[in-house]
Amino acid sequence: MKVEFNGETINIDHEQTIQEFITAKGARPPFAVALNGTFVSRTELPSVTLNDGDKIELLSPIQGG
Amino acid sequence: MQSLADTPLTIYGEQFTSRMLIGSALYPSPEVMQAAIATSGAEIVTVSLRRQQTKQAGDDFWSLIKEMGLRVLPNTAGCHSVKEAVTLAQMCREVFATDWIKLELIGDEYNLQPDPIALLEATEILLKDGFKVLPYCTDDLVLCQRLDALGCEVLMPWGAPIGTGKGLLNPYNLQTIRTRLPHQTLIVDAGLGLPSHACQALELGYDAVLLNSAVAGAGCPITMAKAFEASTVAGRLSYLAKAMPQKEVASPSTPTLGMPFWHAN
């Protein structure tokens, strides 16, 4: 199945939770995750399974005004 | 000498000495950012969230901010819908471990004007979700009254569009908001370019200013940060001291009693 990760389309060949997926992608704390535009808390990440077409956003601190 | 008692800047029950909130973006280097923020005396610094990059740049930035030990105020800059802003606020709360959020909801790309209608909707949702919302809004009295009625304890009307450096485009509107909402903590956010603009905002009775480009974009950001700090102190003292009333007719300041009369004719 295909998912979109930070705007990039990625093929995954087996069922994964968000936690498994972002760990494999090398996510570095601190970060927060949204799935299909909805916030997913860090405690929920290991229990939410990805589906075909899901959009995952992994955000980290940057400068702001 | 008599000195006038002042009250500290209060944001959702927390008190601060500095009357300047400062942004962390657009500086020529991380070192200059850190030095300018430190020189400004600001106790609150704004930050944001974006997609994590593969390189370490974001980590380095966050380490620099953390080591300064300041209160962080995350923003929802760049959001154009209620849904985006609410989601980004929730993500900020988890990453930055704060329930403060500078709520930015852009309504127009040309002048980056806040969308007042969406802002009200997002504010209501976030307040109910336990956030302490600092809404970036236009200088519209009725909008500010509505935000006040929702339960916001801080309002941040713009001085001018973000990054323009034009100063207070409509002092009358800002003054009217101050007059009609005397209990509110009011912060002029955006559009300042000169320390005199910040001074003017404080002289109007605003509690603080929030700025970024004016310092980061200056020829010497560190010196400009110092200038802004001085201007907020001057503006606040001026407000407390109560300015003399303006007059239409000249009035001599030097006593006329005892004036010799060699020019009497």
UniProtKB/TrEMBL annotation, chain A:
NCBIfam families the record matches: thiS (TIGR01683)
Protein name: Thiamine biosynthesis protein ThiS
Signal peptide: none
CDD domains per UniProt: Ubl_ThiS
UniProt cross-references to PANTHER family, sorted A to Z: SULFUR CARRIER PROTEIN THIS
Gene3D superfamilies: 3.10.20.30
Matches recorded under InterPro entries: Beta-grasp_dom_sf, Mopterin_synth/thiamin_S_b, Thi_S, ThiS/MoaD-like
Lineage top rank: taxon: Bacteria
UniProtKB/TrEMBL annotation, chain B:
Subunit structure: Homotetramer. Forms heterodimers with either ThiH or ThiS.
Positions of the Thiazole synthase ThiG domain: 10-255
Protein name: Thiazole synthase
Keyword Nucleotide-binding attributed: no
Primary localization class, coarse: cytoplasm
Family: Belongs to the ThiG family.
Lineage summary: Bacteria, Pseudomonadati, Pseudomonadota, Gammaproteobacteria, Alteromonadales
Pathway it works in: Cofactor biosynthesis; thiamine diphosphate biosynthesis
GO terms under biological process: thiamine diphosphate biosynthetic process
Xref: Gene3D superfamilies: Aldolase class I
Keywords: Cytoplasm, Schiff base, Thiamine biosynthesis, Transferase
